[in-house]
Amino acid sequence: MGSTPAVQQRDYIMIVGSSTAFPIVSAVVERFVRKTGARSPVVEAMGTGGGFRFFCDGAGLETPDIAMASRKLNEEELKQCESNGIDDPVQVKIGYDGIVFVSTNDAETFDFSSRDLYLALAREIPDPSGRAELVSNPYSNWNEISESLPAMPIKILGPPLSSGTRDILVEKLMEQACADHAMLRDMRGKDSEAYNEHCYTFREDGAYINAGENDARIVRKLSHDPGAIGILGYNFLERNGDLLNAASIDSIAPEFEMIENSSYPLSRPLYLYIKREHYPLVNGLSEFLSEFTSDAAWGDEGYLVDKGLIPLSAEESSRWRERALPGI
Q1: Are 209 and 137 in contact (CB under 8 A)?
Q2: What percentage of the chain's residues is helix, strand, coil (to nearest 5)?
Q3: Are 24 and 94 contacting, i.e. CB atoms less than 8 angstroms apart?
Q4: Which of 207, 311, 317, 321 might form a disulfide with 293, Cβ 3.0–4.6 angstroms?
Q5: CATH architecture of 101-267
Q6: What is this structure's pTM?
Q7: Spatial contact of 114 and 169, defined as CB atoms under 8 Å apart
Q8: Cα 102 to the chain's mean position, in Å?
Q9: pLDDT for 192-219, tens place per residue?
């Protein structure tokens, strides 16, 4: 006798995670519901870290089916998943995005170096006078960091600790800048906990403002504060190009081609994570993923490109589609 197929136990899909991926996922949700007539998936933006915590809370149907993310699951999160009975979640790369530093169209246009941004963001920096010690960040205006920057107060609206965007900033800006300083390199070898505390912590003196997980809220705040800089995903820049200017980083602008080929310093992949256990139990889950990974959605001329998603290559698309749709 053949085995009895699993009975579907929930008639809608639950998705949580990255605010950057939220508009991309929402576009697929809209198309999926229109095409199938299925009950609309519930999608909640709570940041990549917050989404992973909820996703890894357990394998039961009271927990999310999909986590949307702007970085990979880290080792600690994988252990949480495993300890709560989630067996090897399916990782699917869906495309690429860039982290952009933006200002309003009527404000100054910036060309930052990676070092400029580190010196603007870090709570502590190597003493500018040359002494071999760390000091509280003394910079209050951009021109104090570099004479090439304007005499404007440093005010940056950015993501909270739970955000994958913040994790990527730490990895690609803070980590790299710290590696360039002999004192910090030496600290890393001797005391990794102290290194992480000194190197990965953003300033808390008002120059960096936690603006929450909602990129759209940052855009609104910038419209009322034209001297401020916002940190957003490229897809939000694409949708608000009439309102915003994007800064170059190391003289490379955050343009489609520069992100696609990873020339732009803050390029990053976006991911979905799916619970294997939920495929047979949640109505429409496989069909939703089939829509998401269709050429009409994530292909070179798919509707997600209009939402600011940088598409995968044809070879990558084929490989990740197979992973998203096991046995289909």
Answers
A1: no
A2: 40, 20, 40
A3: yes
A4: 321
A5: 3-Layer(aba) Sandwich (3.40)
A6: 0.85
A7: no
A8: 16
A9: 888 888 888 999 999 999 998 778 888 8
